[in-house]
TrEMBL record:
Annotated region (Disordered), positions in chain: 324-351
Domain CP-type G as annotated: residue spans: 97-252
One Pfam family it belongs to: RsgA_GTPase
Organism name: Gordonia rhizosphera NBRC 16068
InterPro entries assigned to the protein according to its UniProt record, in alphabetical order: G_CP_dom, P-loop_NTPase, Ribosome_biogen_GTPase_RsgA, RsgA_GTPase_dom
Principal place of residence: cytoplasm
Binding site for Zn(2+): C275, C280, H282, C288
Protein name as annotated: Small ribosomal subunit biogenesis GTPase RsgA
Essential cofactor(s): Zn(2+)
Superkingdom classification of source: Bacteria
GO CC annotations, alphabetized: cytoplasm
This enzyme's EC code(s): 3.6.1.-
GO molecular function, one term: GTP binding
Length: 351
């Protein structure tokens, strides 16, 4: 269990549950209604009671620690409780509900994987970094496929400007470049995040020292990767810690990432302290230190645009759970609609 992250603090907190006949386990793979776990006595497949009134945060996810009621002659093993998560990578769901989707629980290192074989999309990196910082884990940006990049130094420098506070590593699973540095940077439970085709599973196999994770080629038609990883799975690393491989992310919606955005755009957060107005939006306000930094070249316009775009998205996501905030955002639309109706009525009377 220690190999999977069980420690003294968790053991002490679990004492009461042990007295009730429950045992701890970590979710290696989760499915609807079932999950595979590692326990003190070995691997276990357990049922997860499904209930319409159970909150999403209580449903086990890969990486979760749970309280398990062991199997008996009459009953199968069953998950009774999901233990408190120390960290969690959460994104907005694809549906229009207000709930977030937990991608990985209790992670220590979040590896944001970016392929150097493709054009670098800084906005996507910033988006994933916001989730990574918000999770409570330590983000590391891993640039893969360096053997297919003409100027890795320039690419790394470009990414580093958008990944403030995060270590940026250049690697190649094919040649072995940067793998020792990557091993040193990763600790505890490591999750690999990124779209399909960036080389997450290939990178994971290199870290594992065996071809355990399924890999696939990138489509020649559009350069996009195939989804060879179909589920999230927890796998022990040979030098300690565990690896959590994830399917490629088609979409990365933001979900309550206020602190994550402050960390991702740390230079804008710092500049904002010198704005004339405390509630400066950094758009047209006089005395805005952020806009002044753009004019002087200290801050790029692209970086500020990305910040504004992600702020708007995060605010919209928050409005889906906050009725008052949602009403405030809808008020301008209603005012415009009311004005148009008044104009139409006036036109009809004059006609």
């Amino acid at each position: 269990m220690a190999d999977y992250g069980w420690d003294t603090e968790r053991e002490e907190a679990f004492a009461v549950l042990r007295s009730d006949g429950l045992v701890p386990g970590r979710v290696v793979r989760a499915e609807r209604g079932l999950c595979e776990l590692v326990t003190e006595s070995g691997p276990v497949r357990a049922a997860v009671p499904l209930s319409s009134d159970i909150e999403d945060r209580l449903m086990p996810c890969t990486g979760d620690w749970v309280a398990l009621r062991p199997a008996t002659a009459a009953d199968s093993a069953v998950v009774v409780e999901v233990l408190q998560r120390r960290t969690a990578v959460v994104r907005s769901t694809a549906s229009r509900t207000s709930h977030g989707q937990v991608l990985a629980a209790n992670v220590d290192t979040v590896a944001v994987v970016v392929s150097l074989a493709d054009p670098i999309r800084l906005g996507r990196i910033e988006r994933i970094l916001a989730l990574a910082w918000e999770s409570g884990g330590t983000p590391v940006v891993v640039l893969t496929k360096s053997d297919r990049c003409a100027d890795t130094g320039q690419a790394a420098a470009e990414v580093a400007e958008s990944a403030l506070g995060a270590q940026v590593l250049v690697t190649s699973a094919e040649t072995g470049e940067g793998m020792d540095a990557l091993d040193a940077a990763l600790s505890g439970t490591v999750v690999l995040l990124g779209p399909s085709g960036v080389g997450k599973s290939t990178l994971g196999n290199r870290l594992l020292g065996e071809n355990r994770l399924a890999t696939g080629s990138v489509r020649a038609s559009d350069g996009k990767g195939r989804h060879t990883t179909a589920w999230r799975e927890l796998v022990p690393l040979p030098h300690g810690g565990v690896l959590l491989d994830t399917p490629g992310l088609r979409g990365v919606g933001l979900h309550e990432v206020d602190e994550g955005l402050d960390q991702t755009f740390a230079e804008i957060t710092a500049l904002a302290q010198d704005c004339r107005f405390a509630d400066c939006a950094h758009t047209v306000e006089p005395g805005c230190a952020v806009l002044a930094a753009v004019e002087s070249g200290e801050l790029t316009g692209r970086r500020l645009d990305s910040y504004h775009r992600l702020l708007r998205e995060n605010a919209y996501a928050a409005s889906r759970t906050d009725a008052r905030l949602r009403a405030e955002q809808e008020r301008p639309k209603k005012d415009i609609a009311r004005m148009r109706r008044a104009i139409n009525r006036s036109g009809k009377r004059n006609g």
